[in-house]
Amino acid sequence: MITKDQPFTEQELFQSVDELALVDISQYISKQLMRSIDGGNVFFDFRKISPIEYSERIQKEYDSIPSSARALDQQLEDKGFCSTYKFSYEYKMIPQMRNRIVQDGWILGYFQDIYNHPDLPKIELLNNEQFRQVILNALYVTYGYAAVIWQYNPGVYNYTNLLENPFKGWYHVLNFVIGVGYGFHPLDIKFHEKVFYNNYYNNKEEYEKNRAFKNLCKEQYGIDPGCLILSPENREKLRQILTRQGTPKIER
Q: If pLDDT is split at 50, 70 and 90, which confidence band does 213 have?
C-alpha cells in the first residue's frame, strides 16, 4: 500500500487500489449509511456492498453513455455543427491506467463517499485505528492517482492548493481523477468545484444555471450534454456553436 510522501511506481499504485477493493467496511460501522442512485429510485447501505460492487453500480448509472463529453462532440458532428473545438479532452496516460482509471476512481470513491456521509458516526472512525487507516490509505491513493495524472499532463488542473487540507479536498481530487477517466474538459473539472461542495451538497444556483442551459440545448437544438457540468467558458462556446456564431479560440 502506498503511503504519504513516499515514492511509488504506477504498478504499486494499481496494487494499492486492488487491495482497497477487497476491504470489508461493514465490520467498522454500526449505523446504516444509505446511498441513492438512479435518480433516487434505488437505495443501498454501504455496509452491504463491496467497493467493487459500488464501482459497478455507479458505472452502470453513468455509463449508459461512456463519456458525455465525447458524446457531445459526436452529436455536434453528426448534426452538422462544424467546429474544431472539442468538449472532451484526451489526457496522456499509460494504457493500463486508461483501461482501469474509471473503475479505480469509483472504488476510491466508495471510501470517500463513506467518509463524507452525513450519517457516519465519526467517533467510530476516531476510535478504530484499522478503520482510520483504511480511510487514510484510500485518501493517499487518490492523491497518488492525481499526482501520476499531473506528471503526464502538467498544468491541466492545479489540485496542489487542496493539499493544505487533504480531507476537505478529497472529493475534488477524486472528481479530477474520475473526470480524466471520462475525458472531461479541464475547464469543466475545475468548475465542478464551484458547483458541488461534496457528494451531498451543491451550489443550487450554479447547478440550476447548468440544468437550464442543458435543457435549452436539448429542446431547441436536439443536443444533449448529458451529465456534464459545463463551465461558463464552455457554455458560451457551446452556445456560439449552436447559434453558428463562429468558433473563437478558448485556451485549453
A: very high
